[in-house]
Amino acid sequence: MNDDLRARLSALKLVIFDIDGVLTDGKLYLGPDGQEWRSTHVRDGLGLKNLQAAGIVTAVISGRPAGGLAQRLKSLGVTHRYFGQDDKLPLFEELIEHLGISPQQAAMVGDDTPDLPLFAACGAAFCPADAHADVRAAADWVAPSNGGHGAVREISDLILSTR
Questions:
Q1: Residue 95: which CATH number?
Q2: Relative to the CA of 12, which of 47, 101, 114, 123 has its CA 20 to 30 Å away?
Q3: Residue 138 domain flag
Q4: How many domains does the chain have?
C-alpha cells in the first residue's frame, strides 16, 4: 500500500457498503412464491464489527430492498441502512452531513456501475475481486476474495491496518 492510500485510510470515519455483490455473492435464490434468499459470510460480519470497534461508522446503501438482510445488518450494529435506492449520492451527502464529516473521511465498497458516483465522491473506494471491470478500474484497492466470500473482511482488515 502506498503512503497516499495509507493516509486516506487512516483518516476514514465512515465506510459505506453495497449489499448485493459485496456483502452477498450477488445471487438471488427465488422461491415459487416470489420469496428471495441471499447469503452472507460470517467473516464479513466480523469485519463490520471490527470497524465499529475501532470507532468507524458502518452504513449500507443498496439499490434493492433489504429482505431478510435488514435484521442481519441490525444485529451487526449497522445503524445507517438505506434500501431500494437507485441514486445513492444524495443519501451519501445527507449521511456525511448528519455525521459532520467530509467526503474524504468516507469510503465506499461497491461492485457495479451504480456505485461509481460514490467512488468518485469518497476518499477511498474498494471492491471485491469479481466486481465489474469498470469498478475494479476505479477502485483504490481490489480485495482478493469475491463478494459474499470474505471480501468485506479483507477490506476491513486493510483499513484497520492503518490504525
A1: 3.40.50.1000
A2: 114
A3: yes
A4: 1
Question: Quick check: 106 and 96 in contact, CB under 8 A?
Answer: yes
Would you say 18 is a known binding-site residue?
yes
Tens of pLDDT along 59-94? 999 887 777 788 889 999 999 999 888 899 999 999
CB burial string 66-87: b at 16+ within 10 A, e below: beebeeebeebebebbbbebee
Q: Is 20 annotated as a binding residue?
A: yes
Q: Per the domain annotation, does 114 fall within a domain?
A: yes
Tell me the per-residue pLDDT of 99-152, one tens digit each, with 9 for 90 and over: 999 999 999 999 999 999 999 999 999 999 999 999 999 999 999 999 999 999
The verdict on whether residue 3 carries a ligand-binding annotation is no
Residue 35 lies in a domain: no
